[in-house]
Design goal:
Glutamine Phosphoribosylpyrophosphate, subunit 1, domain 1, alpha+beta, Rossmann fold, six-stranded antiparallel β-sheet, 3 domains, 18 strands, seven-stranded antiparallel β-sheet
């Protein structure tokens, strides 16, 4: 089960009506931090810390063993030092609560860099709660869902960007790797204490490819083993690609009971059964293949009450349904995927790795990287060199520009607090900027992976040790030999079937999503043109009508933008 919890300050923690509802939900008092009380089911791990703190979730040491915090944490020291010390020596899936000091009623909160345990709080005049799910607070009568239209106005331009602000009025989310101090009178903005920039740059770069591959292999193996040992049984969601295959190869060395499932579509282009079967064979289990049905691909569907922002769209909802069914039949307690692997393993599709090599290492490494870039993309050396020069001399657009397609001419981007990782060092390399932008995108993966079964969804490639090991590998090493994700391939070359290790491409669901668009075009038109976004004046009605009345054009992926807008519209409708 997910790690559910809610933290209440004294007044609400003592109200009979609140306590009665929390009891009905299976929540029990699990400890206090200052004048705040933590309620959680007994299935949620809670550990007491020296000095009156609490840890919700699990922490592991550098070897992947569950940490005994009472024996390793200093008894008394400044909270910022404790947070930094924990981040340097431990990893896991947790939210940490510490009393601010002996005189204050405030509590300080740290969310681990993977963001695996949800953490939202009420940020206005009085802080009523900190919780894994606003649905718990709503059931206890502490919150009523109201849409924050300023956030939605930002979201239509940046649909895949997680901010501290959410789509629910008065609710903020503590971002992964950040801390916040809360009192009964209100909450402050979060502050990032862990960022990817700490592990990038010349001083942090790995210089030996073999050592880099070893560090990546060790981190992934350690994380998969620790999480699988906790769960005992799991469903591995196999895409047939390198990332989920690496997770599968690591699972083969654990004692967990593993089932495997892969999704296929009625159209050509996404049938990965041949490759997924190789990993199932490695695990000595049967591969379950489930077909995504066009009839199930709806644009109007319920979203979890705990959802803080639009994140679930038509494909993720369809995949979630079949994976839930497979997990139920397999009777497993968790679901594992290779989610985030492309980003973590630096699968960049631009010339940035070669430009980075020139800037950081000079001519020899730069020209070598141009050769690798040429082989990777199947283009001439001249074209690879030209694209590299463009990257070297063109100033990067940072942060990224908003997507204004189909937005009203009167639309204006509201000045919300930006993501803290946008604060890049002046010396940041272009490829590193692209990698960090990708990592910011992965912070939505948990929100975008709906699973109705209540099982934990594990994405081990996004765990802190894996991310840190990969960030230390410079971008040009990842294209060595003209191979994408080269260091990851080298790290697991002795564990993966050659057919997977050597493949350079993977099936996509683009034909399926295009098929959904063709079949749902009229429904999409009514959904958007008669919906809440349109009534708020956010959409360009004429532009939408023009596009939706034109027959689909081959290789035109503009319809994906419409799916983003449908995702936002659907979330708004189900939170009104």
């Amino acid at each position: 089960m997910p790690y559910d919890y809610i933290v209440l300050f004294a007044e609400d923690a003592e109200r009979a009506s609140v306590l009665a509802e929390l009891t009905r939900l299976g929540m029990r008092s699990r400890g206090q931090v200052g004048r705040a009380t933590l309620f959680a089911p007994y299935t949620t791990p809670v550990a007491k810390l020296p000095g009156g703190g609490l840890c919700v979730g699990k922490l592991y040491d550098s070897r992947g063993r569950e940490a005994e915090l009472t024996s390793v944490l200093p008894q008394r020291t400044e909270k910022g030092i404790i947070f930094r010390w924990l981040l340097e020596h431990f990893w896991g899936q947790y939210v940490l609560l510490l009393p601010d000091d002996d005189q204050s009623e405030a509590i300080s909160v740290l969310r681990d860099p993977s963001g695996a345990v949800s953490c939202a709080f009420q940020a206005r005049e009085s802080c009523r709660f900190l919780t894994s799910s606003v649905a718990i607070a709503a059931a206890a009568g502490l919150y009523r869902s109201v849409i924050d239209w300023t956030f939605i106005q930002h979201c239509v331009a940046y649909p895949h960007l997680k901010l501290e602000r959410t789509g629910l009025d008065g609710i903020q989310e503590l971002l992964p790797g950040s801390t916040v101090t809360l009192t009964a009178q209100g909450g402050a903005d979060g502050q990032a204490v862990w960022t990817p920039w700490q592990f990038m740059g010349r001083a942090q770069h790995q210089r030996d490819p073999e050592a880099a591959a070893g560090a990546v292999r060790e981190s992934v193996t350690k994380v998969v083993d620790a999480l699988a040992s906790e769960d005992g049984s799991l469903l591995l969601e196999l895409s047939g690609g390198l990332d989920s295959s690496i997770v599968g190869a690591c699972l083969a060395k654990t004692s967990a009971r593993v089932a495997c499932c892969t999704a296929v579509t009625p159209l050509r282009g996404a049938d990965e059964r041949r490759y997924a079967a190789l990993i199932a064979e490695l695990l000595d289990v049967e591969l379950r293949a489930c077909t995504l049905d066009f009839d199930d691909a709806q644009i109007d569907f319920p979203v979890p009450a705990s959802s803080l922002r639009p994140a679930v769209w038509v494909l993720s909802r369809s995949v979630g349904r079949i994976m839930d069914e497979a997990a139920e039949k397999a009777e497993v307690s968790a679901m594992f995927s290779g989610g985030g692997g492309d980003t973590v393993f630096a699968y960049l599709t631009t010339a940035s790795p070669a430009a980075d090599a020139f800037r950081a290492c000079g001519l020899a490494e730069g020209f070598k990287a141009i050769g690798n870039l040429s082989r990777l993309h199947g283009c001439t050396l001249a074209k690879a060199a030209r694209l590299t020069l463009r990257k070297l001399y063109r100033r990067p657009h940072w942060p990224p520009a908003p997507d204004t397609r189909f937005l009203s001419a009167s639309w204006q981007l509201p000045p919300l607090k930006p993501h803290p990782w946008f604060s890049a060092p002046r010396s940041a390399l272009t490829g590193d900027r692209e990698r960090v932008l990708g990592l910011i995108g992965t912070q939505l993966f948990g929100d975008a992976t709906p699973r109705g079964s209540g099982r934990r969804v594990r994405m081990p490639l996004l765990a802190q040790p894996v991310v840190e090991a990969c960030l230390r590998v410079p971008s040009w090493m990842w294209i060595d030999g003209g191979r994408n994700r080269a260091i990851a391939r080298d790290a697991f070359c002795g564990n993966l079937p050659k057919a997977i290790l050597n493949r350079r491409s993977k099936g996509t669901f683009m034909n399926y999503t295009a098929g959904v668009y063709r079949r749902r075009r009229q429904a999409i038109a009514s959904f958007l043109l008669e919906g809440s976004l349109q009534s708020q004046g956010l959409l360009d009605r004429a532009a939408l009508e023009r596009y939706l009345t034109q027959p689909p054009v081959a290789r035109d992926n503009t319809f994906m933008r419409l799916f983003d807008l449908c995702m936002i519209e659907n979330w708004v409708r189900h939170h009104r």
